[in-house]
Specification:
The complex is a heterotrimer of chains A (218), B (798) and C (346). Chain A is 35% helix and 28% strand. Chain A is of the alpha/beta class and 218 residues long. Chain A has one domain: P-loop containing nucleotide triphosphate hydrolases (Rossmann fold). Chain A has a 6-stranded mixed sheet, sandwiched between helices. In chain A, a hairpin with a 2-residue loop joins strand 4 and strand 5. Among the domains of chain B are: 189 residues, no CATH class; 153 residues, no CATH class; 138 residues, no CATH class. In chain B, strand 12 and strand 13 form a beta hairpin. Chain B is elongated and about 95 Å long. Chain C has a single domain, classed as Beta Barrel (AttH-like fold). In chain C, a hairpin with a 2-residue loop joins strand 6 and strand 7. Chain C starts with a helix and ends with a strand. The chains are: A alpha/beta (218), B alpha+beta (798), C mainly beta (346). Chains B and C meet through helix 2, helix 3, helix 4 and helix 6 of B and helix 1 and strand 4 of C.
Chain lengths: 218, 798, 346
Amino acid sequence: MVLSVQNVKKSFPGAEGPVPVLRGVSLVLERGETLALTGESGSGKSTLLHLIGGLDRVDEGSITVGGREVTTMSDTERADLRRSDVGVIFQQFNLIPSLSVQANIAFQARLAGSYDENHAKQLSEALGLSDHLVKYPEALSGGQQQRVAIARTLTARPKLVLADEPTGNLDEATASEVLGQMLGLVRETGAALLMVTHSQSVARRMERHVHLSQGHVV
Amino acid sequence: MIWTTLAALMSHWRCNRLQFFAMVAGLALATALWSGVQAINAEARASYDAAAATLGEGQFDQLLPRSGDKIDQSTYIALRRAGWQVSPVLEGRLRTDDGSVRLVGLDPLTTPGNIAPVGMQDDTTLDDFLTRGVIFVPPDVANALEGRVTQRVITDPSIAPGAALTDIGVAQSLLDAERRLSRLIIAPNQPMGLPALDQIAPGLVRQPAQDAGADRLTDSFHLNLTAFGLLSFAVGIFIVHGTISLAFEQRRSMVRTLRALGVPLKVLILLMISELVVFALVAGGIGVALGYVIAAVLLPNVAATLQGLYGASVAGTLQLRPEWWLSGLAIAVLGTGFAASGALWKIAQMPLLASARPRAWSVASGATARRLGALAAVLFATGAGIAIWGQGLTLAFALLACLLIGAALALPLLLRGAVNLADRKARSAMWQWFWADTRQQVPGMSLALMALLLATAANVGVSTMVSSFRVTFVDFLDQRLAPELFIRIEDADQSPDLERFLVSEAPEVLPLLSVDTEIADIPTELFGVRVGPTYRENWLFLDDSGNAWERVAEGRAVVVSEQLARRAGLWTGDSATVAPELTLPIAGIVADYGNPFGQAIMSEAMFRRLHPDVVPLSFGVRTEDPAELRRKLTEDYGLSDTAITDQARIKAFSLSVFERTFTVTGALNVLTLAVAAFAILMSLLTLASIRLPQLAPAWALGLTRRRLGQLELLRAVVLAMLTTVLAVPLGMMLAWVLLSYVNVEAFGWKLPLYVFPGHYARLMLFALLAAALAALWPALRLARTPPSDLLKVFANDR
Amino acid sequence: MIVRPLLLLLLIPLQAVAQGFAGLGTNADGFAVPTPEPEFTFPQDHGAHPDYRIEWWYLTANLTGPDGTTYGVQWTLFRSALAPETREGWSDPQVWFAHAAATTPDRHYVAERVARGGIGQAGVTIAPFEAWIDDWRMAGPSFDDLSLSARGTEFAYDLDLQANGPLIFHGDAGFSVKSAEGQASYYYSQPFYKVSGTLTLPAGDVEVTGSAWLDREWSSQPLAETQSGWDWFSLSFDTGDKLMGFLLREDGGASFSSATWIAADGTTTAYPDGAFAAQPLEVREVAGRDVPTQWAVQLQDHNIDVTVTALNPNSWMALSIPYWEGPVAVTGSHTGRGYLEMTGYE
């Protein structure tokens, strides 16, 4: 079991007191599984993803990643978790503009101290980035930038990949292509994938599908 | 992880080289300005210290003749034989081919413990010094003495510049002052049970330590420089703050990404601090080196200025002192730390999921501006309190600080007000947009504009002070140098004969009789003058009771200098004891700038009665044909040409001294403005990238990029103009504080404040030019922004 | 800056004088040199001999206060010539300096003065006799009737000296040999002064009485190069007899000794090298040096076998030329008082 979410609750401060966003969500993800998390805007899907990635803290409940309890971790331990076990892919590509494509791809693996040049090369080839390695992110198209972000995440061989609308900024054809590549590569590495999306077509390409509505799994 | 993160942080600079350059250059400039001014100060002070050590001045109490300028050697022996541990000093000017050298004679056997006047070389012994005649000189004097003396001349850099040091016996013979001494140094430890000083030497007066010499005088100039140094530093801190804020704002998104990818915040902050420390050290090092260059370039002027003004020499060479490096680097690191603390704190507080968009204008919103304004009001009130009730140099400086910091803090509010006013008057939509947009720019540029405000105000203030000093001084010279020719002779026996000759050749001869004495315990030069039309017509009184010169001429009154009057607490109408058993009313007060001693002027007749032994060695001569009289004096009378000076030459010399002061202040002006311009450039660059989203709609609505660029430039100039307009009154207040408070507290005389609109206009022009230059490039960049970048704003703006 | 060098400068001639105690340069550089069988003429020879390099008027006194407390007083005027001549004014090559000290059982006060000849600040006149530097002076109508004064920051004294015995000539009628190589000085003493006067200490004035011993010595090259210092004893026994003896220490540990036995009636016996013996009994650390402060002294000829003990072991003269000088007590075969001077202890 790579990921276990048990009865997680989270609310945010609003003008008239706390606004509950997650009202007790539980789910489990096994090694190699892919899961689409859908729901309307404001259903709390991105929040759940942030909580799993240790980017935010739960109000209540338990989250374990690879058997480690995330909710009680210190900031430094969460950073450690993101560095080694969890990879996050955002809708905004979040590349480091001052580093080359190659350096961006290698970055997270280097942070985690697990950089494998061959692996990085394979990923770049599989994602069609081989010709762009010496360029800087600003010279790439949106699809290419997201491919770089995917490569960066996978190079570090995370146990769990979290993706927040990774194709949301791409046109449909590109989105489909990038998604296909991503799913293929995730399967190859044996990682589990949790993807937040509002697109049913994207969700259908996942093995499992969880829908969030008003803070509950339905 | 550390290295990977550091590499990512550093990659920012590789991609933003200009920004990197700006930060390092900004820090370096600020440090340079600081350390340059410090260097000039330190170097000059070190020279004085050398001089003071040579003379034992400032360290020991001394005995000076109560009247006249020499002590008989028998008085020295009498004091010694009464047990008093005193040591003799003879000082005088030794003429050389191209000027004169100050010769100091000492008795090394009796000088108190640590005024050691002699540099020792391996082949000199006390035997040589005492009995064969050895003269120790600094390098600059060595050549001048060549061929002038028969004694062996030994170069020793530790001797004060412009001085020569020798045994007292040698000095007596070289200065033709056998059995005469100038003063006696009193050793700090005296035997028990000594008889009272005035019992043995009633003709001597004891001068407490530190009250002698050029120290206080030259401090006047140093005070200016110190004030300037502080202001420069303040300006420097602003620019460092600006550049560092920029760098941090631009890296916010990177910081967020790094944290999302698993770099702990603590590691990130520590890495950024280390990065800054390294930059600060590198930039500080460059800055200190640069400061050294500035000082080295300016120092000949500074040295000349000081020498000209006060007769104190600064060695024309500069030494790189370790304390300089350390203080320069410390200032760079501390300044960086101070400037970066806010930015780092913001990074530390930034939530991981917050928008990574740079937020330069959140620094000083309307509410912040009002808060700063309130703080400024408090500072102004404190300043006013100090001005009314405060006393002392420290408080005078506190007043300056209140004034400057208050003004800087009030600036955003004032600018907002001005822009709002313009906004209300705006007719067209474009101008409304322009003013609204300008208002939004104000907070982002606040720091840079504060730097500009301080820089301009400092320049206005110092220029006003120096110029006021100059104007006053020129008037003073006109008054004091009214006679066309000045004659100074060395030989007292020649005096009566020369006077007869002069009287036969010139309509008015003004012999100048003088002795050093004390009035109200203040060292004073007492002058005897021949009151005539020259005095009546040319001398201006700061205050007088009418008929001043008549009363002086009749021996019924004296005229005293402002310094003496202020320090003794005397004024027109009070009485001054000018000699034992002679008290005269003060008929008038005259200005006497740059003189640490008091002056008192009485009639020639009265003076001759008091000091029958003193003969005039200086004569002022009125003549219609200076050249002809000069010819007669040299050819017919046989006077040496160097003994004659004409007014124009003295005036020209005195003015040239001020020109040099101006060179220094001028150069520092340019430097401070350069630093301020840099600050403007940096904030505009910061704002440029952030402002695209605001400019894009204006572009989309039909303003061309070229027009946008022009408006951008105009905006910078308008803001700079508003700032400099505010800077002028601030600068004048600064000058007023310097002249009316600081100068009086420090030196005992008040300088009249003159206003120099021309100077201010020029300074404003410079400031605007600096601002425009700084804004030009960002504006050009804007004008050349590819439309696609502007379009992206719409595409990316979620 | 220029602080340090002057001290160096000052030390040079003083060092030379220090070697007057311990090894002034071995050649005489144009100065006169003492020769055997001197003929003294008085009072002229009480005055200065500027053609000799070094000369002193050296007085030590053992004193007692009204309560029986013992004190010591030293007054020394040195003349050190840079050239064998005198000149008027500041260029006079005669440098004068002086040391004064007052010793109590637990304190030792010192002071020094330096001055140049030629200007009246220091010198010696013969008739009436006056030796002075600043306000320190030893003066009187004759050499037998003197008053003595000096003062420092913490002490002063004003003493009256009456001689009740003859002048004593050391060595061969005043020609005192200082080494096996023959270096010598002219050396005579007046050890028979009775003293009365006032000693001023921080606690107040003390009326004192006692005896004093004045040494006159001048030379131009007194010590051999290998001699590193000396130990000089002037002892007055309760019998009325007196003994002057000194050891000149050699670098290798050997020493050269000389002594004069002064009978109570003033008759003298001079002893050559070896007769007078002195061995340290107790060494104390004084001013960071090991200094013997108790000695065993023997002169077989007169059955002298005594222990000489410092009144105050810390009688260190912390001056430009540092050395040890202080009053001593004599016990053993004979009892009495005296003065001890030790130089060259580094």
